[in-house]
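Tutorial, part two.
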Amino acid sequence: MIANSQILMMAITGIISLLLPFIFIVILKRKYKIYWLPMLVGAAIFLVFALILEQILHMIVLKPSVDGQIELLNQSPWLYVLYGVLAAGIFEETGRLLAFYSMKRKYKDVGTAVSYGIGHGGFEAIVVVGLGMVNAIILSFMINSSSPVLNDLPIDMDQLVSDQAWYMYLLAIFERIIAMTLHIALSVLVFYAVMKKGKIYYYFLAIILHALANTSAAMMQAGLLDNISLMYASLIIMTLVTVFLSRMVSLNQENII
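Running the prediction step on this input gives:
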């Protein structure tokens, strides 16, 4: 049985993930102009480039078996990590690049990048955490009602859901806050790669930073790292480095006319 208190935590976590984009808007609109179109473009680009195109490449390159096994992961986990982080960086930063080129004539200030980052990171939070919590709540009700459907699943869903520690829900929200901050900072770098002549290397810098930020999580997935504290420490450090670099780039640029 899944306790009602745990189901409530799932619901609260899911609701907060839905509210995160609006919380970022309230906080950042004091300093930046927030635009709705770039925000929607950020969400759309994440959907197309990360959830569709990147996944198609994964199917082609990784060729997962029917039971989900991936040969590359088993034979060469480090190569799997390298492929995974570079694929994420290249697809998402290329999406940003094309988005800013398409909006270049109308949206010329850094608020465009901030808005895009909120849309990109906010939509990711909704997909990763929000939908994840919806699935967990549905499973919880199925478990509590002893649904016969659970008998057809290959794993013990009761054990999987009930073993989730309460603080993991807080970590999920914390991780999304860090990830959204990272996406905003990366958006600023790619924005200036487009808006400032001769600064295309900011785009390549964004790819590298994105890949490095994802490395510790990919290592955990590949079984090369089992310390969750180190994983989050690495993510926080790379996010702070990216924020610092994007801030320095922003301060060093002239006003774009």
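DSSP finds nine helices and no strands in the chain. In part three we will examine how such features are distributed along the chain.
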